[in-house]
Design a protein that fits this description.
72% helix; Arc Repressor Mutant, subunit A; mainly alpha; Rna Polymerase Sigma Factor, Chain: A; 190 residues
Length: 190
Amino acid sequence: MLNHLQTIVEGCYKADRRLQQALYEHYYGYALKIVFRYIHQYDKAVDVANDGFIKLFRNFERFKYEPDKLEMMLMGWIKRIMINVAIDQLRRDSRQIEFNVLPDNLWQQSGGSGADDSLLYKELIKSIKMLPPSYRAVFNMFVIDGFSHQEIANMLGISVGTSKSNLSKAKAYLQNVLKKENKQAYAAFR
């Protein structure tokens, strides 16, 4: 896989359309999942992911990697671009509440995850989508994507204090949702 991926990446440096298509097809699902954490309208998330790939290919010469860490570094670069493009779209829209249903196959996990893990993942995403937009963006960026509060503040145009406050409120909200769901589940088995 590594040699094949390296061939694809080298072709993308040369703007080889066939190899760009191969990279796009291989990482499209990954990119769409990242975008959908920020843009919850499926059709718009698809458009944003495609815009992200256009940006990625236009700036491919900026991608630098170590051969033994190629896939990890490529996935990190794709992730950063998709997050930035999604945040740019949120800024343009100025409305952030978008709740549409995703196709079921988008939730399929790569690897050997069991049915319980898939269900837990769906429930977690469902709870995160219930967060107010400003809390959801900060939660995704800090907890899931690993950005620092300073990076979040710079990307969203807010203060570091606001980022920290929004994260704290998001965590408290999610804890309350999980407590409520646990009480309901416990009551159902009585």
